[in-house]
Amino acid sequence: MKKSLIMTSLVVLALSSALAGCGGSNNGKENNTANSGTKNSTEQTSENQGTDKTDKISGKVTFLTNRTDMIGKEYDEYLKRFNEKYPDIKVEFEGSQTDYNQQAKVRIASGELPDLMYIPDIPNSDLPKYYAPLDDIEFSSEITFKDFKSYDGKLYGITTGNSTSGIVYNKKAFADAGITETPKTWDEFLAACEKLKQSGIIPLASNFKDKWPLQPVVYDLPRVIEDNNGFPNSALNSEAPFTMDNGYGKAMTVLKTLNEKGYLEKDINSTNWEQSKKDIANGKIGMYYLGNWVINQIIGVGGASENIGFFPLPYDNSGVIRAAYNPDYFYAVNKDSKNLEATKVFLKWMIEESGYEDFAGFMSPLEGRESKLTQLAEFQNTGVVLQEGLPDDPKMIEIRNQAQVDLPAIAQEFVLAKDPQTVLDKWNKAWAKAKQDLGY
Asked: Apex CA 303: angle with CA 300 and CA 304, to 5°?
């Protein structure tokens, strides 16, 4: 899919949690499912011993995953197929808490890492401290976003899948509201929201309370508004990176405007992520602004695939539409794992054979594999320009962590504030102090 889509040069991805939900990241990093401390161990065997030399490897692999909804379901099906080929490798899934990024950082600090996990928001220079190089894994084709989680010439992270962000919508809800064409401009988008509202349909689910679903607003939208793949990294050269008239201010104003016009949930402080998927599926809610990964989750709770569509968010009235192209979470292997080879075997199988990217609604992490998600073809046919990403500058990550900058949380403050400029001033002050303290 990557080669078949219109590309421009790269977009920054900040991994913080989400995903889905989802997502990542961020960026999905926005792909996230909330459940606290769930565990499931599936140990299955088979008489089929396989023919690959790795079929003799044995061991137990623990995988910390944000996809708690798959534990006891799809993951069990994966393990059944995996154990047909590798009967002596046992896998235990541990479900994360709501904020995967924070939980992963706590596990790192405590030195209690699982064998396989997703990389949290840490500088790439820290990757060798915790994770094993993955260059020795041979894949059938090149992996995408290979430079994102590499350091000193070595690969430490492999994307679970890739996505773009846009408006996921219920086609029947649009038809019932008298919307005959998907919006191409911001004014048309607001008009569509008004029609949905007048028809008794909540125009757009923000899932504001959960915070992580706001990731596309603060990680994707600012850089595409600026049409600048290096926009987030430009904060390194600024004492005040958050302004009302740059990508950050404009993106958060989009969300604030939708809320003030009554186009989001009635009470944005008591939203419910799982229920929102059902409400999109049944047409009580018209739209999400999220990644394509959420489409299959909507279908999974009862939405008909042919009734779910996907188009780029028209954030202004120029008629030119861009969208971010992002990796989701990155797999990583604990360098101190007692079952290093078994973990790498499972990781390779997840990438090559599990079919997770199709279940999750991702574009493949491998070059040249086409997505089976029909809604992506609909998205592409709009003529959208996809903006592919660059890794965050390590100094920017360091400053962001020092200043405790949490962009989705800032967006929450911005939307609720009577004077959003005071929110930007507060975080510009924190940013400037962190830069000074770190000598940047």
From this structure: 110
